Amino acid sequence: MKSKYLLITILTLSLTTLTLSTFSWAGEPSPSASLPTSSAPPAACQTDCATPYGQVLGRAPGNVTAYSNCNAKCVILEPNREKDTYTGLKWQCVEFARRWLLNQTGVVYGDVDTAADIWKLHTVTRVSDGTPLPFESHLNGAPTVPQVGDLLIYAKEYLNTGHVAIITQVDKHSGVLNIAEQNFANAKWPADYARTLPMVEKAGKYWILDGYLLGWKHVSTK
Prior knowledge:
- The chain is of the alpha+beta class.
- It is built from two helices and 13 strands; from the N terminus they run H-E-E-E-E-H-E-E-E-E-E-E-E-E-E.
- It has one domain: endopeptidase domain like (from Nostoc punctiforme) (endopeptidase fold (from Nostoc punctiforme)).
- It has helices at residues 2-22, 93-105; strands at residues 56-60, 64-67, 79-82, 85-89, 107-108, 123-126, 132-139, 151-154, 163-171, 176-180, 195-202, 205-208, 213-219.
- The strands form three sheets. Strands 5-6-7-13-8-9-10-11-12 form a nine-stranded antiparallel sheet. A two-stranded antiparallel ribbon has the order 1-2.
- Residues 1-26 have low confidence and may be disordered.
């Protein structure tokens, strides 16, 4: 009977490992959860890498570093901390966006199951004193111009998780903006940004032209 239970346990653990290795995942556990650390990435994080796992992709303005997650299928249950604050699982898009906010504005957003769920959040927390601050949502096509530091949120239909990126530069007159991100293409950045996106204004409304984009989130510190 003990052998039967042991076999079931092994099969369960194997299926769990297979699931994490096969599907893209942007979720995260509670910051207080006890997670194993790994000295070497699993196989899913060592093959078909655009850039080897853990290598620097680039540095956003403010010297916030983005690291390669190898590919979208790679998930390592290893938490990252910055300034004694939990930022997320290495090196997911959710982790980079939270770490950027922490370094540049001193705030973080709460736990989310997927990157797309950031859209549902109404507040962020100021780390220094725990004060909640408004976290505004602006649908793509809003009359509000996107600003540096706003978060672009992509719908869950993208890889079943969505995506999050940071706006690092806006050129309203040229109709372009630069963004910084992790775990999208996992390619080396051309400069201090990962990608440049076109933006158009029509009838006083602003549209960022990128697939699956819901809109942008803005931290209000006033």
